[in-house]
Amino acid sequence: MEAFFNEIFDYNFQCNKRLIDECSKMSELPPRTMSLFSHVLNAHHLWNARIISRPSEYVIWQEHDINDWADIHYENQRSSFEIVSNADNFDKRIDFENSEGRLFTNTIKDILFHIINHSTNHRGQIAVDFRDNGENPIGLDYVYYKR
After folding, report:
1. Which of 112, 127, 145, 142 is nearest to 23 (CA)?
2. What DSSP string describes 6-46?
């Protein structure tokens, strides 16, 4: 399980890094892209914080300056790798309160997979936003990463 999560978090890291690099080249970033990618970063941070029982530094739809994206992304990745490396039981249940104050429980493996799936979903929305704003989306499919 550890090897699987290390690989998909590396994939996620590479995708987000490429997206940050591409966005940094744009003279004007589409507002929806700014909002969606900040949300991706915030959600990743929030889920990591839930797993390690720490308060989140960000709220879910908080927007970040593009100049801060790489640092937040790197810290998210470092924290996720630490979680994966230190997990002795991926089926351990984590109790947490969502942003609306409702209580839930999920396993570490479910939360880790959710981080990746959530990021992929929003990167797809960002690709559409690129196209809607006259930009060419970048190919971030898993199969491209594996080549």
Report:
1. 127
2. HHHHHHHHHHHHHHHHHHHH-SS--HHHHHHHHHHHHHHHH
| Domain harbouring 116, CATH code | 1.20.120.450
Alpha helices in the chain (DSSP H): 2-25, 31-51, 66-86, 108-132, 142-146
Quick one: DSSP state of residue 57? S
- For residue 111, the enclosing domain spans 2-146
Contact 140, 15 (CB under 8 A): yes
CA distances from 103 to 5, 47, 95, 99 (A): 26, 14, 7, 10
Structure confidence by residue, pLDDT tens digits, 30-60: 989 999 999 999 999 999 999 999 999 999 9
Total count of domains within the chain:
1
Element (H, E) at 103: strand 103-107
Residue 99: per-residue pLDDT: 82
Distance CA 62, CA 83 (A): 24
